[in-house]
Amino acid sequence: MNIEDIRQPFLKKFPGDFSNNPTQRSTPKVLFATIKPAGFEQPQLIAFNEALSEEIGLGKFEKKDLNFLVGSDLPDHVQTYATAYAGHQFGNWAGQLGDGRAILAGEITNAEGKKTEIQWKGAGATPYSRRADGRAVLRSSVREYLMSEAMYHFGIPTTRALSLAFTGEDVIRDIMYNGNPQYEKGAVVIRAAESFLRFGHFELLYAQQEYTLLQDLLDFTIENYFPEIVSPNHQKYKDFFENVCTRTADLMVEWFRVGFVHGVMNTDNMSILGLTIDYGPYSMMDAYQLNFTPNTTDLPGRRYAFGKQAQISQWNLWKLANALLPIIKDEKFLENTLKNFGIYFWETHDKMLCKKFGFDGMKKGDEEFLSNWQGFMQDLELDYTLFFNQLEKIMPDTDLKEHFSPVSYTVLDEEKLGRLQDFIELYQSRIHSNTISKEESLAIMKTTNPKFILRNFLLYECIEEISNGKTELLTKLTQALENPYQELFPEFSIKRPSNYDDTAGCSTLSCSS
Ligand code: AMP
Ligand code: MG
Description:
Elements: H1 9-13, E1 16-17, E2 32-34, E3 44-48, H2 50-56, H3 66-69, E4 81-83, E5 86-89, E6 92-96, E7 102-109, E8 115-121, H4 138-154, E9 160-173, E10 182-193, H5 199-207, H6 211-225, H7 235-258, E11 260-261, E12 283-284, H8 309-328, H9 331-356, H10 366-379, H11 384-392, H12 400-404, H13 414-432, H14 438-448, H15 456-467, H16 472-482
Parallel strand pairs: 1-2
Antiparallel strand pairs: 2-4, 3-9, 5-6, 7-8, 8-10, 9-10, 11-12
The chain binds adenosine monophosphate and magnesium ion.
């Protein structure tokens, strides 16, 4: 790998704490603290993303690069650091947070001049670890590695994953939070993104009233990551906020399209670039359920449930607006932009749903059709992904009970069957009113509805296998997630088997990473 080409322009651009002091503390007036990874002596490769490595300019992996994958034996020029950010967690101001288990190596530039930041997740404690160990376990690392790549291949903005390696060290975790901690294998993922900046970076500077630095960070962000903003002077800040709102709304629509539930949409987990970031207790949805939350910590309030994700991102954008007010200085504008977020989101969302059904666009009556459909899906406990796959395959002589029973989590009794028949009739009459051909309609469905999703039970089985030294399922899942709009492996096109209904890690997950 071209490790020698990694640079750290962020360290030159912004004020930082260069003490290399690992003590956990608050670091006012700076955006980062330099810190060395723990340095693991017995790393073991699990997976390496060659295509991504080539794409970002890091080139081929060789045996000698193994230590780099866990942040060990770094050359002097790789001056590593953790950034400081703040955030609102579960609706409350949490103050300074920061990269507690992420350490940045810096930036790599590819042959086309495209810059990518890379960082280790799980390579050791930083000043921002807040009494935690800065480590990550195999379980959470496999989940991040695979899901971020699955998102990329869906065509959804996301941070990416370059490598997955065992550290050779065991880590202690209380996965059920019940006072029964266990040793688990430690692992490190290298993540890659154009930038890992979050809403929380801006909130931190606002909270510290560091307005000059806040403006510097804004200028830097616009100049480097928002090439579409060309307006001069003060207008660029307004354009920026509008842009972040649009990117965030678009991202939410995409999450709804494939049935992704993030699980911890705190403002520190919101990328300023509109990327999916921080894969923790996320889940791809099995049964369609608007109030489904995968995160056990979120169960009491279901703040981060599937159906609430747009509303929550709007709430998070309010917090960002608040942080940017000293620079933008126009409350009315910010309020209007936030109001427009809701309008834009719903328009885009409904258009997306129409595509899932193969409609030629949004017509009169479609809105009612869609909201009825939501109730229908929940009452019949239908699998979100498989329902659309089955819808594509309906023929005039299809036996609906036989066709949809395998994709429902309940028994389709007479009453439910009646509703299914009514719904399909309504759907088919709407399809007949399409101005596009049946083939065109099907083509829209096939590119909008994934055939493969990374379900929790598949991840669970994959993690078990890797723990036992096998990687066949990992290889197969990687192939499947790289081609999500095809059905490479029919055995993955099944609803969650009932034996996994109550297995921790399959229906609900803890944050313990
Ligand atoms: P999260 O909810 O996973 O986004 O994490 C919230 C905050 O806790 C972030 O500042 C993380 O860096 C920090 N954090 C979470 N887990 C760990 C860990 N194992 N070691 C250090 N910091 C952590
Ligand atoms: Mg986080």
